[in-house]
Amino acid sequence: MTFSIHGLPVSRGIAIGRAVLVASSRMDVAHYFVTKEDVPLEIDRLRIGRDKVTEELERLQKNIGFRETSNELSALIDVHLMLLKDEELINGVKSWVTDRLYNAEWALTSQLEVLGRQFDEMEDDYLRERKADLEQIVEKVLRAMKGFVSPILAPMASPTLQYGANNSFMDESQELPLILVTHDLSPAEMLHFKQSVFVGFVTDVGGKTSHTAIVARSLDIPAVVGARQSTQLIRQDDLLIIDGDAGLVVVDPSPVILADYRIKQGQADLALVSLSCLRHTPSITIDGIEIELLANIEMPEDALLASQAGADGVGLFRSEFLFMGLSGHLPGEEEQYRAYSKAIEGMGGLPVTIRTVDIGADKPIEHGIRNDLHLNPALGLRAIRWSLSDPEMFMTQLRAILRAAALGPVKLLIPMLVHGAEIRQTLSLIRMARSQLDERGVAYGEVKVGAMIEIPAAALTVPTFLKYFDFVSIGTNDLIQYTLAVDRADESVAHLYDPLHPAVLFLIANTISICNAQGKGVSVCGEMAGDVSLTKLLLGLGLRSFSMHPSQILKIKHEILQSDIGKLTTWAYDVIHQEDPSVYLEKSQ
Ligand code: PEP
Ligand code: MG
Prior knowledge:
This protein has 22 helices and 16 strands. By secondary structure, it is α/β, with parallel strands linked by helices. The strands form 2 sheets. Strands 1-8-7-3-4-5-6-2 form an 8-stranded mixed sheet. The protein is globular. The structure holds phosphoenolpyruvate and magnesium ion. Magnesium ion (MG) binds at residues 415, 454, 475, 477-478. Magnesium ion is lined by residues 415, 454, 475, 477-478.
């Protein structure tokens, strides 16, 4: 039966595929395809894992003795042994491997999901509770097979994997790509998405500008987050449509709906092809004003995407992604230097703005970050606050950036500054990093230093920032969160997360106009910069530099080519003075 689940649209496009449910993090395993030749080997791995657990249980059974309490334990072991030999489990797992070419661990968790649903539907309480036993034995088998890794850390595709028309990974038997359905995904897990077999994802939780959503956008994967209960409502292997523009997941679509979405998918592909003609077109408004279009990147390799999209440079390199997934170990100076150098080389002489590490809130790493659940990490030791609390770590990063600046134009950007004292301390550490390099006789380059304006207090004291910095970049994602007191990662308050709230627009307009009046560079690097529906408004408010994920650049350029700033300025100030700017904007555009 067709039904749909509504969530938040975070990454555009349409994906059609089969659901792969990763319901429980306890069961996180790798997902990859095996070759047909490897099928017997995979089944053998399963058999060995199952035999090990059977032996272990039988040994335990023998050794429990004859005490009263032993009877209960013995009965439980019997149940586990029975479940291990259950034909539905064994045959089901075999068919996932043989027909779908899933690796053994993936096959086992897929079948667990199918059987788990059957248990859930049982009337008898005793039988229904046996689901927990099934989960336990599957976990034991997985352990015996040593198949535990992150759910989306799939090895690279096997050589026999088929590619679909859109180059997506295909499930050989069903000729359909795969879509991950999971409760949540961390930004670090998202980074591995590129190497995984999935072409889209749906999560139960998450906000529109959560970092998971941001990475999804930068990877240009259709995605819907905050689709509450999707892991409950969607079943393993269900046919899914992800409508990333509408924030909709259609489950088990009828042939008519499916055909309709295939047409939409084709049209979207065509639109992208026609946009690609704009790559070398200068980004100039109708009245001849040049607009800078920069890219936001997370990893050095993304520089390639940025330059392919025709970006004028990198406006935001979120360096914290270099710090994630390292099990708490921090990247050293050389490691960071190599990463920054790679991004600089990738941009071939265009400027690269490297933001110092912004760890904390929804981008945690294990190292040194307190994990007190009663505290609010978004208001805590995040970004520059963390850097200043660990000067050695910060100096290491600064030295690496300064050294990389010898290879090409680099700007240094500091996140989440708010106090004058923090500003002065930061600048003094930058000076200190330079003198350390001087002492070591190591070459480094000149950098322009800028600050992010992403806290209301910063936006209200822009002149202080301009006294110390060469440029500023407005981080609208956090500016909205902190102005409206709405957690950007929490889907339950997503309806209140409003870029067009008059207070937010006032802070943005104020920052742009002060910077323009003083001739200082100002750009927007939050998600608002990549939102086509806001381009004319930001142009009208005086913005001349936009930084966004590469996949949005050509769309924004298309909008700029059709804009006449002479006609936008008065209108933009009208918009921001409305009680409800979004309604006015919609009517008047
Ligand atoms: C922002 O806050 O708008 C921003 C660009 O930084 P981040 O999304 O990484 O917090
Ligand atoms: Mg921010």
